[in-house]
Every structure is written in C-alpha cells, then in structure tokens.
Write a structure and sequence with these properties.
Chain lengths: 173, 316
C-alpha cells in the first residue's frame, strides 16, 4: 500500500469520523442509532486487496478507539475490525461484485456492521469492561442494522465512486 | 474458494493485531499516554461538534419531536390537568381568604359588642325569584339558631333570621322591601325607621320632624325588647342624601348599608348579648386618609463672599 493511498485512506476516514461525531451523532434516530463510520468502513474494504483491507480496518479502528465518549480500552475496536477484516478477506470472492448486486451489498453491510458491534461487545465483556444490558445492546444493534440497510443505496455507491475517483487521480498523475 | 494471502500480508495482519493488543494492554494497565489521545481528539472535535450542533439542532429537535410526539401529547395533557387543578386551588384559596377576612371582621365586631355569635356560611341567595331578599345559611336550630335572631357581618347588620330548620336558616336581608327596623343617629340620638327598598339603598324616616339629619350621619340599631330581633348599637348604614322637600310631614333620607349584602360569604348570628347598650361604641371608624406624599426640597444657599473686616488703624 503506497504512501499516497494510505494518506488518502486516513484523510477519508478522518473526514467520516468528524462527520459522524459532529453531525450523525446529533440526529435522534427513532430506533437505536446509525454508525455511518462503520458502514463506510465496510463499504471501503469490500473492494480492496487484503493488505489494504487490513490497513483500512486498522486506521478505522484506531479512529474509533479515539472516540472521547468510549470507556473501553484503546485498541479494542482496532482488534475487532482487524479480526472482521480478516474474515472478509477470506470470503470476499464469494461476495462477487457488490456494485452490481445492491441487495447483497446491503445485506453484507448489515451483517458486517451488526457482527462487528456484537463482537466488540463480546470482547469488551471478556475483558471485564462494563457493557450495556442485553436488551439495550440488541435494540441498538437492530436500530443500526435497519438504518444501515435503508441508507445503503445512498452511501454505498457514493463511497465506491469516490474511492475510484480518489485513486484514479494518482493513476492519472 | 478461500484465497490465501501472501506471507507479507499475513505479517502485516499479525503486526497490526499485535499492535492493537499492545494498545489494549497499555490502556488496561493505566498508561496515561493512551488516555491523553482521547482528550486530544475531544479538543479537535469540539469546534466541529459546535458547528454541527448549530446546524443540526433544529432538524434534530424536529425529528426528536416526531419521535416523542406521543410523550409530548401525554405531557401536554398532564400539564393541562395540572393547570386546571392549580387554577381551581387558586380560586378556592382566594375564596377561603375572602371568607377568612369576613369572618375575622365579624368576630371583631362581635367581640367589641360583647355578643355571643355563631359563624355561618351563606349557601344561597334569593333575590329574584319571589321578590324577597333573603339568604340561606348552612346552620340551623341544631347550632342554636331560632327565629328573629340578628345576623351581622363585619361591617354591621345584615338581616334577621326568618325561618329555621335543624340544619339551615333563611335570613331576611335588610334590603328586603318588607323589612323595617328602628334606628338612631349616632351622636344626636334622633330616632327613625329604616325601610328596605329591594336595592342597595334604604329610606330613613325620622320620627320627629324637628330632628336634624345630615349626609354622613351613621345609623345604629335602636334595639328591641329583649334585644330581639335587634340588640342596640349595631352599625346599620350611613346617610348618603337628605330629602329637604318643603312641606313634608317627616324628614327622610337615603341610606347606604355598611354591610355589602350581595357578597357575603360568611356571616355571624348573634345568639345572646350583654345587657349593656354599647351606645356609639360600634360606630365604624372612618377610613384613614391616604397620606399624600410630601416633597421636601432642600435649598442650599450659594456661598456668597462675606466682607472680611479690615482693621483700621485708630489714631491714638
């Protein structure tokens, strides 16, 4: 992964992180909340090679770990996303081209975001960190899944086009 | 088919996993460097969050209101119910306050006259149905009331008990057109007959045509045999105008009652009186004049130069 691609990835995730913290988090969703950051992370790593997948997961995890509102230890989100990115990299071929299969893309995003939250909570519980009650966690996860599913036709194509364009600039140069 | 990564990619994954585990370990062991990163992030994010809050607050509130519309309606209903209850309590409190003042006044008058009284609440007015001016009290013979007892307020005579049941009593007001009572003018002791006219004013006819009456004279009850129905010396009203028509056989005047007959909530019924006539002791005191604020102007004279005495040399 080149320095250019790494810097583009970092800048992009920082922008999404700020967007999530400054705007998305302030919207009172009807059920649970919506993690645009997680959805964008899994959209981003859906169409990259393995090394870039791990790097993107690491960058996204570090940014999530730096969220001031978190009580869990720094590195927990990084570890979670790295594990998931490894799983995704193993089975990416079976997903096919998600650009042409919007329903599969939506289900992939719902599955990965939900599983990442549950895995994060599981590891946190194993480490002795206070986790929310099961009902709250279930409602939040379900709410996030609903919004991820409903909004995926908007952000998923956008992320893919943006990614292609960002990396195409370098190729053009 | 599972794609197997190269050794380099695998090394990258292991390195990143180890890094994340190292970060977790450091954080769990309380290394302050890790926590300071979060503080720095908060510092960086704060201006963005402020801007976001300014932009999104109205939209967020809108969505929040939609989400909580059921709760908002419940809260509104509860607030309306609370408001209604508080208004009722306020009205009740004001009513009680007014009754308390009336009761205090009437007990004050009763104590000055040395009357034994029993307080009663006015539960009904009857002035339009049968052309009689009456009120109904919530107490009756079980509280010691009987016919021809005097009913007073804090200001003076209200009426006379006309009929009694065990738990209620009907009082004929002094404004009733059929009401007559003997009165005397405080000071001159001139006697007369006061007649109700079905309104807030009464007619006074002096018994002696040579007696004098003037505007502002206070009328007191003359007293009946055995102090029933009227004990002597009770304030009744004040003369508001005198009829000086030439050729009239008796002198007459228009009188306004002290007691506000239309707004009595609490009255007292005189059960017994002292033998002594209080004479003019119960004449209401005139209201204290409102003090006019005086403006005091201090004038400080401008110091003028005073001639200093000059010593003149005298020739010796």
């Amino acid at each position: 992964m080149s320095i250019y691609r790494t810097s583009v990835t970092v800048s992009f995730f920082v922008f999404i992180f700020i967007l999530q913290s400054a705007l998305i988090n302030q919207i009172p969703f009807f059920v649970g909340g919506f993690s645009l950051f997680l959805a964008v992370t899994f959209s981003w790593i859906a169409s990259t090679d393995r090394a870039e997948t791990f790097a993107a997961a690491f960058i996204a995890g570090i940014l999530l770990d730096l969220s001031p509102s978190l009580d869990s230890p720094v590195g927990l989100w990084t570890f979670t996303l790295l594990l998931l990115s490894y799983l995704i990299s193993l089975y990416r071929e079976s997903l096919g081209d998600l650009d042409e299969r919007p329903l599969t893309a939506a289900l992939y995003l719902v599955a990965t975001t939900s599983f990442s939250i549950l895995l994060y909570l599981l590891i946190a519980a194993l480490l002795g960190v206070d986790v929310p009650p099961a009902l709250t966690a279930t409602i939040d996860t379900a709410g996030n899944a609903i919004w991820t599913l409903l909004l995926s036709p908007i952000y998923f194509p956008l992320i893919n086009r943006l990614k292609v364009r960002l990396f195409a600039i370098r190729s053009g140069v | 088919m599972v794609q197997r990564g190269s050794g380099r990619t695998r090394l990258l994954l292991v390195t990143l996993l180890v890094t994340s585990l190292l970060l977790i370990t450091l954080d769990l062991r309380g290394v302050s460097l890790v926590n300071s990163f979060r503080s720095a992030t908060q510092t960086i994010l704060k201006p963005f969050q402020s801007v976001g809050s300014a932009i999104f607050s109205p939209i967020g509130n809108f969505f929040g209101n939609i989400a909580n519309i059921g709760q908002a309606n419940e809260k509104l209903d509860q607030l309306e119910a609370d408001n209604k209850r508080l208004l009722e309590e306020l009205a009740e409190a004001q009513d009680i306050k007014g009754e308390l003042k009336q009761l205090k006044d009437v007990l004050d008058l009763a104590s000055r006259g040395g009357y034994k009284v029993v307080a009663a609440k006015v539960i009904a007015f009857d002035s339009a149905g049968n052309f009689e001016e009456t009120i109904t009290l919530d107490i009756g013979s079980s509280s010691g009331l009987s016919r021809d007892m005097t009913v007073i307020s804090g200001k003076g005579v209200v009426g006379v008990v006309k009929s009694v049941t065990s738990r209620s009593a009907i009082v004929q007001l002094i404004s009733d057109p059929g009401f007559r009572m003997g009165v005397r003018i405080a000071g001159t002791q001139a006697m007369g007959i006061l007649s109700g006219e079905g309104s807030s004013t009464f007619t006074l006819e002096l018994l002696d045509a040579r007696s004098t009456v003037k505007e502002g004279d206070v009328l007191l009850s003359r007293g009946s045999t055995g102090n029933r129905p009227f004990p002597p010396g009770l304030p009744v009203g004040v003369v508001t105008s005198v009829d000086d028509s030439i050729g009239a056989l008796t002198k007459s005047a228009t009188v306004r009652a002290f007691a506000n007959l239309g707004s009595q909530g609490v009255v007292s019924v005189i059960l017994s009186t002292k033998v002594d006539d209080p004479r003019d002791a119960l004449v209401p005191k005139p209201p204290a004049p409102t003090p006019i604020p005086t403006v005091t102007v201090f004038v400080t004279p401008t110091p003028t130069p005073t001639p200093t005495p000059t010593k003149t040399k005298t020739k010796k």
